[in-house]
Amino acid sequence: MEFVKFTELEERIKRILEEKAALKTHCQELEELLKNKDIELEEVNKQLKGLHEEKETVRTKVDSLLELLQDI
Questions:
Q1: Would you say the pTM of this structure is higher than 0.70?
Q2: pLDDT digits 0-9 by tens, 34-43
Q3: Rounded-to-integer distance, Cα 12 and Cα 19, Å
Q4: CA distances, 62 to each of 29, 44, 47, 66 (Å)
Q5: Separation between Cα atoms, residue 27 and residue 16, nearest integer Å
């Protein structure tokens, strides 16, 4: 009887350790995905900043051309 309980306990511990290892692996995968998404977000933010700067440059040029046209 005691041996059976010990075996059951041993099996439960093994399952818990296996689950822990699987969760650790999954956590590492999620951390890697998060890191990659952070890098992607930084790149998109840089592109967005560049587009805003380009928009302002175009706006400035259009405004100056409109001023020249108003003088005519």
A1: no
A2: 999 999 999 9
A3: 10
A4: 49, 26, 22, 6
A5: 16
Q: How many CB atoms lie within 10 A of CB 49?
A: 10
Spatial distance between the Cα atoms of 9 and 14, rounded to a whole number of angstroms: 9
Q: Rounded distance, CA 44 to CA 50, Å? A: 10
Distances (CA, A) of 38 to 32, 47, 61: 10, 14, 35
DSSP letter at 22 equals H
Q: Which ranges of the chain would DSSP assign to H, the alpha helix?
A: 2-71
Q: Which residue has the tokens 């041996």?
A: 3
